[in-house]
Amino acid sequence: MISTQEVPLAFDEAAPSYDAMVALNPGYHAHLATAAEALLEAAPAGRPLALVDLGCGSGASTRALVTAARDADRDVALTGVDASSGMLDEAHAKRWPTGVSFEHGLAQDLAARRSEFGLAGPVDGVLAAYLFRNVGPDERDAVLRDVHDLLAPDGVLVVQEYSVAQSRVADLVWSLVCWLVVIPLSWVTSRQTRLYRYLWRSVRAFDAVQTFVDRLYAAGFVDVEVSTAPGWQRGILHTFRARRAG
């Protein structure tokens, strides 16, 4: 059993094989692209954008934001933040355009360390993909408030996350996929299964969709929207988009 304090170490352990592992999920990068496009679509117009990829991992979500910004013809300064030094090593090893940087730290440290992360001023958008499961239930509201405070008026938060608490069918499908596909593949690719066994448990323990929507409103966000992924992940993978009021 992994505690929330041990999660960065589990990601460090899995980091060298992480990109290869997620590449075996045919929808993984497409879903990140959808989340990044949702953020760029709603971001304030008429100026260069300051964006944060909170829980950036090895940089897959960062790449999705870079691509979405390029496709939307928007200039961006983009900061990726992650608690796993191993995952950040993988991110740093990739080639990035000017304006992309990475910082090491917990999402829970955002308020206290924002100046250290180069985020003293407000930002226009925050993407948090597969992050909030890894934030303890008693800390999620505080992190959402910190993200809200970081955003400029009309700034946008997009959260992509697994949630199965609202559906027994979704819970069953998730468990079958994890134990018949994901965990065996993690053993084949790296001989490491700890992170992916934690993945299975953490998704099952995460907020129901409505619970997380309620958290967003309680943190001060408005115009909360939720969509789910197609295919086998329908009702399992969800994208939340919310806005700080102007």
Automatic annotation (TrEMBL):
SUPFAM superfamilies: S-adenosyl-L-methionine-dependent methyltransferases. InterPro entries: SAM-dependent_MTases_sf. It holds the Pfam family Ubie_methyltran. Keywords: Ubiquinone. PANTHER family: CARBOXY-S-ADENOSYL-L-METHIONINE SYNTHASE, TRANS-ACONITATE 2-METHYLTRANSFERASE-RELATED. This is Ubiquinone/menaquinone biosynthesis C-methylase UbiE. It comes from Microlunatus capsulatus.
